[in-house]
Amino acid sequence: MYLQKYVKEDTGKKLSLILDCRTRWNSLLAMIEIFHKLKVCIDKALIDIGSDTTFSDLEWSKIKDLIESLQPFKLAVEALCRKDSALLTAETTLKFVLEKLVTQDTMLSAELSEALRVRKKEEKERRTVVKGILIYLQNPKNMMMIHLLCQKKSYATGNEKYLRKSYSR
Q1: Does residue 12 lie within any of the structural domains?
Q2: Domain residues for 39?
Q3: Cα torsion angle, 21, 24, 29, 33, sign
């Protein structure tokens, strides 16, 4: 009741805070976005009810950083959930997320990008073979692209032989 009074004054319409749901990946981001959007109203309502709870500028800044860090993941999941997305979309989407996190230049985004890089490094060799197969299946004339993928120093010629053998059938 205290909060809605300020929300209506500030935005001209009724907005409510929402709770996240464990089974919905994007509910946390939506919850935090609305919370941050209503920060002035929340601060006023906390004063009205005489609460000892207050949010410092640093805490609001951390909430903003969290929102900015989760935004690329929201876009990535939406891209991957499209009907026309393929497995190759995942590689491009991962690169997009990493680029966005690097440009944010926050502690949280640095930690998230490092975690993604570690995971990507662990899966690199397996993904190269799969990526080559997918490139070929999209367009069989892309044999040169497969050859280039296998030329990277960390991949033995065994991978190239495997790909060539698989595609020559």
Answers
A1: yes
A2: 1-55
A3: negative
